[in-house]
Amino acid sequence: MSKTIIVSNRLPLQIKLENDNSLKITPSVGGLATGMKSVHAEGNGIWVGWSGLTEEETDSFTKKKVNEAVKKEKCVAVSLNEQDVENFYFGFSNKTLWPLFHYFMEYTEFEKDQWESYQEVNQKFADVVLEHIEDGDNVWVHDYQLLLLPKLIKDKKPNTTIGFFLHIPYPSYEIFRTFPWREQLLEGMLGADLLGFHTYDYERHFLSSVKRILRLDVKFNKINYHDRVVTVDSFPMGIDYNKFHDAALTHTNQNPKEKSELQRRLDNHIQSTSNAKMVLSIDRLDYTKGIPNRLRAFEYFLNKYPQFKEKVRLIMLAVPSRSNVPQYQKLKRDTDELVGRINGEFATVSWTPIWYFYRSMPFENLIDLYTSSDIALITPVRDGMNLVAKEYVATRTNEDGVLILSEMAGASKEMNEALLINPNNFEEIADTLKQAIEMPTEEQSKRMKILQKRLKRYTVEKWADEFMKSLNATKIKDTVMVST
Ligand code: GDG
């Protein structure tokens, strides 16, 4: 019986080596893990990825233990050393591909050593996949760390059906053409039978690069490539709607004694400020998320509309991310400084305009934040999709609340009922914030209902299901070649 092999940079498991050398393994609860659950559970399906522990951290005994433990979760670990992690992950993936694909040319490094490491590590992933693959199997590869993997597998096992999904934006041809190893990267991706993107725009940009760089024949969303047809399509990723909605419902009916410390603080704030509006933002501390823009726009808002002083508070959760990459360290310094400056300038004895949390929070606290906030202010300068925007909507069980969303987030393509803004336009953000604060509840509810209906229908499970259906369909259509 054929199976599906899922491949991603990290396994969907948190693996921690405790001080006494024992292992603590907890399954990840993120969106991707949820969406892939049914694909992974089916038959002999396995998930291939890095465990998060380097070879230097694990002696042969521990390595054996890790392998046995992940096997129980139907996972297989790819072994990476410190050098790989430094050059492939922090290097090429996060200093070259991540900034380039998010249009941050000025942050993009083109280092040959790191490119070589990227190729080597993609080969390491391929070797593990090839050890477990049988003719007729499906492989579903995820994200920008593994762009070369489809070809490495296809060359050795032409009878496997390979899908690839990119979780970040695919940039326009004018950006992509600057990449020194552009042909190899495209050919790596074209090893897949189906290439999926979050939006039609990313799909379009990819096809344009293929046409102009490789000069391949493209008809609609099909590419003639050697003796194969590669299909390209968009699959906007959804969320586990019920998980967020149900958690919010339980939360609303919570016994006061069960409330978290954070929720008590939020409640106090609501009482002590006579219902001042709460504006929420949640993101990894990443330069693509538009955090400084948001803070400057909030400062501009307080200056332009002083009537809202003491009447509005921004709660900003910034989750630590890639903190050994210099640009992320700079962003942290800039953010700390901006928050300090704004709070210093506007705070009164009874009011601090920004509550800033630089940490990761447990799921329950995320729900506290989502359900207590009147407005979500999500302003990335580029974002493949942005699931936070969708999660906020799912938790609005009373159908109130307003979502302000950057038009540069993939999610904006499906969320027209949000208030869409250009993240670089301070005035527009400030005016939209005022509009959101003053929006009548009937209008909030009208917009929220439509957004919720759509999210409820196109969940992350549905996303995975549609992708797999399209992947299986490529097997049948394989023989129907596009005329050249
Ligand atoms: C990439 C793309 C694309 C956040 N803080 C905490 C926490 N989170 C959870 C959120 C949400 C997820 O992390 C973040 O997802 P996003 O989609 O917003 O952003 P990226 O991490 O950049 O993800 C993005 C995504 O891949 C999927 O394809 O949408 O465009 O960049 O689910 O809830 N979860 C917990 N504590 C936190 O403090 N528990």
Automatic annotation (TrEMBL):
Family per record: Belongs to the glycosyltransferase 20 family.
Protein source organism: Meridianimaribacter flavus
Enzymatic reactions: D-glucose 6-phosphate + UDP-alpha-D-glucose = alpha,alpha-trehalose 6-phosphate + UDP + H(+)
EC number(s) recorded for this UniProt protein: 2.4.1.15
Keywords: Glycosyltransferase, Transferase
Subunit structure: Homotetramer.
Name of the molecule in the record: Alpha,alpha-trehalose-phosphate synthase
Species classification: Bacteria, Pseudomonadati, Bacteroidota, Flavobacteriia, Flavobacteriales
Pathway linked to the protein: Glycan biosynthesis; trehalose biosynthesis
Parent-protein start and end of this portion: 1 to 484 of 737
